[in-house]
Amino acid sequence: MRIARFSIDGNVAFGVVEGDPSDPDGPVLDIIKGHPFAEFERSGKRVPMAKVRMLPPVLPNKVVAIGRNYAEHAAELGQTVPDVPITFFKPSTAVTGPGDPVVYPSFSSEVDHEAELAVVIGRMCREVPRERVQDVVLGYTCANDVTARDVQRSESQWARAKGFDTSCPLGPWIETELDPSDLGIMCTVNGEQRQLGRTSEMVRSIADLVVHITEAMTLLPGDVILTGTPAGVGPLNVGDEVAVTIEGIGTLTNKVIKRD
């Protein structure tokens, strides 16, 4: 099931995506009663996706991200895979949705794309045992961990490099019925392929990451885990269109603009 979050007539709602997104007539959204973090019913009221504004599929309390979880990506940065996962936060103000702009930060001159699989948490959880990880996951979506690389190199903490406004595009929806263990991940910039990898190349699995993170903190419904990026990260410039495509989910597209 694909669950989208959208705005229509000034109201925000969730809906189940019906139809093929590649169909010329486009898919429709069956608006649900309530929210997807509990049992819900479909209202039967359908609206064409083309007539709504798509929003980030969730607005998380926190985004917990993982660094250097693909060995080839660590190598391209001149780094090694750490003995313990590198974790950092992106604030909720970094989150932006499909089709929304990524605003190039004024304090950086080297901004990179990082295509990633994002895990959406479905229930409040802490100290999750490995055998229960799937019980706390609602589903998966595409993410772009946009990074001010020059700032990341110059500052020991990554808060500004990774957490600036619009640095965390998410979308286009949550896929709830998916085996995430071996999915293709691709990033293109202006139609040119930059990144191509598979989730099977992760050093640490999604189960590893959920167990590790929840040893330390409580995750809330709608929180997001970014699972790391494959090799091939590269620069973004004002005017570029960047797209993250993940097998079984879809494509998240954003355009880079200059801050007014």
UniProtKB/TrEMBL annotation:
Keyword field: Hydrolase, Metal-binding
Superkingdom per UniProt: Bacteria
Location of the Fumarylacetoacetase-like C-terminal domain: 62-256
GO molecular function: hydrolase activity
One Pfam family matching this protein: Rv2993c-like_N
Recorded coiled-coil stretches: none
Stored InterPro entries: Fumarylacetoacetase-like_C, Fumarylacetoacetase_C_sf, Rv2993c-like_N
Residue ranges of every copy of the Rv2993c-like N-terminal domain listed in the record: 1-57
PANTHER family found in the cross-reference section: ACYLPYRUVASE (PTHR11820), ACYLPYRUVASE FAHD1, MITOCHONDRIAL (PTHR11820:SF7)
Name of this chain's protein: Fumarylacetoacetate hydrolase family protein
Organism: Streptomyces meridianus
